[in-house]
Design a protein that fits this description.
The chain is mainly α. Helix content is 52%, strand content 6%. The strands form two sheets. A two-stranded antiparallel sheet has the order 1-2. The chain has a two-stranded antiparallel sheet with strand order 3-4. Strand 3 and strand 4 form a beta hairpin. Helix 2 runs antiparallel to helix 6 (112-126). The radius of gyration is 27 Å and the shape is flat. The chain starts with 10 loop residues before the first helix and ends in a 19-residue tail after the last strand.
Length: 187
Amino acid sequence: MSAETPAAGGQFTLRRQQFRAWRGTRPFWAGLFVLLSGLPIAYFPYANLQIGHLTLAMATTAGAGSLIIGVLLVVLGVSLWFQKHVRVFAGVAAILLALVSIPVSNLGGFLIGFLLALVGGAMAVAWAPGAPPAGQLATHAGTGAGGAPEATDHDTTAAGPVGAADEPNDLSGTNPANGANGRHSAG
């Protein structure tokens, strides 16, 4: 079998390719890092470390706060996977929760959860959706099934002149003659 020979198209190969395609359209690794950061932050305040016959309890007075921070980070990680449009909010929230976890949760899960949340949050904020391939863009442009509905009334001119001044009867300032084309300007 050479490198040019295609692999047998099995169910596993199909699912793996579908997963890769799904993963490529969202901030997958950012969501994974944020999700994994919540686990040590929530776990360590409730853990007991056994050293021989010595039990070291790492429980803090803010154990409930650690649990809340950890659960929120796990939820933010999952939301980055399934709701990619909240990526900036989830990334900033993960960074803020990581910073809050330092004093609340044993130095942010002994810096493991803290660093994972910082990296994942930064990756989520920095992620941007890629452009669709050129062939896919051309097929969507022809069908009209993409985003906004097609306009049916192409005549967007202002009303006729009023009185003898020959000014249009459009006081909104959004007619195509002044370049606004129906959009309101903030300044």
